[in-house]
Amino acid sequence: MGTTGSSFDPSLYGESQIASQDYIEGLNNARRQTSFPRTGEGMSRWVDDQVSGPTTGMCVDTREANDIGDVSTQLTNEQKEFLENEVGDPPAVGGSVTTELPDIDPASQDVYKYGYYRYNDGDRKVFGTERTIWRLKAAGKLLAQKGIVMGVGDISSRGGPTRGHAEHQQGQDVDLRLVGPDGMSKPCTVSNSSCYDREKTFEMIKTLIDVDPTKVDKILINDPTLRRQINTYYQQKTGSSRSITAYCAGHDNHVHFSWKRR
Ligand SMILES: [Zn+2]
């Protein structure tokens, strides 16, 4: 299971690729009431069924495509200085998949300082290369200033190889929840306009592009309007003509963001 281009077998992932509104409502209620149910069996199953869904042949593989010039950063000097103080300089690309994204309690005010929380800790797919973890922390810090909080799901298992995913094998891929109108990422699908805010989700993606534009590989999300916005933004920023987005089964409720290996 789980190689790029393999045919999609729904029986492996549950009947539906879209979470029912009841289920989403239940998760939101549970989260409001108590500590976030990130390790419960129901949550793990839901994540397996809905969030960490399969990739298919429709998910273009643009990895290693390299047609842009030297666009080392799109950040302002002020932003660069801010990040240098907050998260340090970007580490070298590549290397081992042994750096863990620090856990931020989603029920605490810290999420508004760090700009992210993890939502799928049960199986510990929370490791990336040093560079990838820096990317997420850097984007989180910038997004926090705009009142946006990323919901970070699977990255990779420690070491790299990650069960249940075609991608996520080298610490260079991350799954992210959609951002809601209040700036908080939450379980949601692109068809639910009451909890999916396209512009805020776009802001999250723009920031992830900005912190490391030459290394962006591809972005999977099943909202064609958002895909057009992302492609235009990326092309204007980098001078590339490459389309970096694609439709992919199972990506109605999260963004899959990949960086190149080198
Ligand atoms: Zn993914």
Provide an overview of this structure.
This protein has 262 residues and is an alpha/beta fold. The chain has a single domain, classed as 2-Layer Sandwich (Muramoyl-pentapeptide Carboxypeptidase, domain 2), CATH 3.30.1380. It is built from seven helices and nine strands; from the N terminus they run αααβαββαβββαβαββ. The strands form three sheets. The protein has a five-stranded mixed beta sheet with strand order 6-5-9-7-8. Strands 1-3 form a two-stranded antiparallel sheet. It has a two-stranded parallel sheet with strand order 2-4. The longest helix is centred in the middle third of the chain and has 15 residues. The site of zinc ion (ZN) has 5 residues, from strand 5.
Secondary-structure blueprint of this entry?
Layout lengths: L20 H13 L7 H11 L25 H11 L11 E2 L10 H4 L1 E3 L8 E2 L1 H15 L5 E3 L20 E7 L5 E2 L11 H14 L4 E5 L3 H15 L6 E2 L7 E6 L3
Parallel strand pairs: 2-4, 7-8
Antiparallel strand pairs: 1-3, 5-6, 5-9, 7-9
Bound molecules: zinc ion (ZN).
